[in-house]
Amino acid sequence: MKLTTALAALLLTPLALAAQSSMPGMSMPAKPPVAPSTSLTITFNGSTTTFSIADLKALPQQTITAVDGHTNKTVTFTGPLATDVLAKAGLIPGAPTHALILHSYVTATGTDGYIVVYSGAELEPTFTSGEVIVALTTDGTPDASGLQLVNPLDVKAARWVHGLSSLIVTTLAPAK
Q: Residue 31 — very low, low, confident or very high, per pLDDT cuts 50/70/90?
């Protein structure tokens, strides 16, 4: 009888943990550590631009506060806006590029191969109140994963990319 109880507990524990992690107020499971990123490569319009951490530090810095969905703690991140980094790679925001931005999406990839997608408008301040940043520091110190893509408007941190290594801008052709 004890063996059956122990076996049931062993089999049900992952299910119980999964159920708890999806309950309101519960944090997401901890993300395993990723290899730190030391540069960010942007691909846009057939060109590739690579930014070192020093290059990213030279851009205007923003500080945002967000709740980390993995720890349920409020954290402060500092780094350039993603749109400022994209502008340095050629995707300059403004009225002349609004259509281009609306027809584009950005694929963000981490050093562990984790991939997320943002619409171009989600990153552009003239279309959103959010401030998606390429975080260089977390609570004032460099993060162990190097660069992070952080969106404080996301309810879950599922589209945050630890060890951010690349952003690829893809533009869809207008319908005919």
A: low
pLDDT of residue 174: 73
Establish if 78 belongs to a structural domain.
yes
Q: Can you give the residue range of the structural domain that contains 149?
A: 34-171
**CB of 43 closer than 8 Å to CB of 27:** no
Output the pLDDT for position 15.
38
130 is a domain residue: yes
Q: Dihedral through CA 140, CA 145, CA 151, CA 156, nearest 10? A: -110
Asked if residues 90 and 152 have their Cβ atoms less than 8 Å apart, the reply is no
The H helix count followed by the E strand count for the chain is 5, 12
Give me the sign of the Cα torsion angle 84, 89, 95, 99. negative
Q: Which residues contact 13 (CB under 8 A, 6 or more apart)?
A: none
What domain count does the chain have? 1
Q: What is the DSSP letter of 138?
A: E
CB 59 within 8 A of CB 88: yes
C-alpha–C-alpha distance, residues 18 and 62, integer Å:
35
